[in-house]
Amino acid sequence: MTNLLSSQHATTGTAEGDRVLTACESCITGWSGQRPNWHHRGVDQRAGGRKRHLSLVPDLPESAATDRDETPLRAVSTLIPVPPLVEATADDLRRRLAESGAPQPFLDHAARFGDDVEALAVWLRDYGPVFSEKQWAGDLLDHWSQFLVPGTDAIAAEQFGAAFLAMYDDDSVGMIKHLIAEAVETGRRETVAMARVFASVGPIAVRSAALAAVEQLLAAEVPDVEWADDVGAGRLLSAYGWSDPAQSEEMLVLDFEIAGRPRSFSVLLDHSRGSGVKACQLHGEIGKTRRQFEVRATIAGLPFMTYTRTQAGNILAAALVAPIAARRADDIEQVNALLPLLRSREHLVVVPAAVVPMPPAPTSPRQSTRVSRVHRLKVTLTHTRPPIWRRLEVPSTATLAELHDILQVAFGWADSHLWMFETPTGEYGRPDPEMGFMDAGRITLADAAPDAGSALHYVYDFGDDWRHSIVVEAVEAAAVGPRYPRCTGGRRAAPPEDSGGAETYEDLLAAGSIVAGRFSAAAINERLQDS
Question: How many CB atoms lie under 10 A from the CB of residue 421?
Answer without folding.
Answer: 26
